[in-house]
Amino acid sequence: MKGCYTSYHSITHIVGDLVRVRVAMPEPGAAPAVRLADLALIDQGNGSRLAQVTEINGPQVTLQVFDGTKGLATDASVRFLNQPMMVTASDNVLGRIFNGKGEAMDSGPDLSFDKKIPLAGPTVNPMHRVLASKMIRTNVPMIDVFNCLVESQKIPIFSVSGEPHNALLARIGIQADADLVVFGGLGLGFDDYHFFRQSFLSAGLAARTVMFVNQASDSIVERLLVPDLALAVAEFFAVEEGKRVLVLLTDMTAFADALKEVGVANERVPSNRGYTGDLYSQLARRYEKACDYAQGGSLTILSVTTMPGHDVTHPVPDNTGYITEGQFYLHDGKLDPFGSLSRLKQQVAGKQTRRDHSPIMNTMIRFYSESKAAEQKSAMAFDLTEYDQQLLKFGQLFERRFMGLDISMPLEDALDLCWQTLAECFKPEQLLMKQALVDQYFPKQQLAS
Hints:
Strand content: 15-25%
Mean pLDDT: 91
Structural class: alpha/beta
Distance between the termini: 77 Å
Helix content: 25-40%
Number of helices: 11
């Protein structure tokens, strides 16, 4: 990045991690001296700090400083590099761990001469997209059976602090039948970072994983870059190499909080609960990268969105719900079948899977819903019918066999277990299913009394 660039010694403000500098206005018809998202170097004799242009208002340019502004004075020089942020994109990034600036934070070989690509490119032209129609198997029954994860889907895990969302995210990344996994950690504590790293290593997944990690102690400016870094690399592998790429992001609420903090420093007018007015578009710009490419592979996004105070109307989950195609709702250490929804499951259930998939899914959820009503009757000391007793037994088996986050089984085994569970609790005529399906899949030996 060393070269002959014009240096400016005209810093006017230093606020938080932001620096404002006055630059010369270009002559009419001349190319602008500074562009949005361009990089700059701030020098003060004791080293250089990398910054990025975030706002241009006439001659005043606002920069976000990646390493913070502590110790920076207004007599520092600013050199604009006339290029956007770039990230390394080649097969050599597989198995590597990078920080929020895209710099390697492991002891792997140098990547200086590998291919570089810019961040935050445009979303894919709809003419180059194909309709989602392929399932990503995770071996998590509550996903594979009841809310399929589909290639090119963008879907969050709605959770709260203290829930095992990171453990679930890591497990899905390990078990999913994707070609590559690109992980983006935003504001992670060291324990969480170490957990993901060791989980991928222990599972033998490191060779097909790329990690971009911003820890809680790192700059919030870098936190804003992590989704763009992860998605740019994922796009490269999906488009250039035709890979089926799964992107894991945690936690997008930390991303939104970083946007809020930077917005306050930029003196932007706050919107709902102090978040910036462009929160929706900022989230959508990242989530809309999910795509099944007509001439390539696919990019699927699975993220964690924590809900402060368990409030689903909080601006971050509320805006996210309008962008994504459903959600996995993690509640009390389980994936809640009532709060979870995959709007694309109809694209694959019964088409890429067994023909009994959709009917058994609907029947199981119907009986589980009725079992919760039977539980309420029991709790209020009402007399229970024989059918209520059947429902109570079914509810207990359902939770024990399918809802635990440690349960892992292939889809076909899970479907067979669904039929087995129904047979242990109900008679065939109680299922209200097509007779042809009952004849084919219902266990021959009737186990219900």
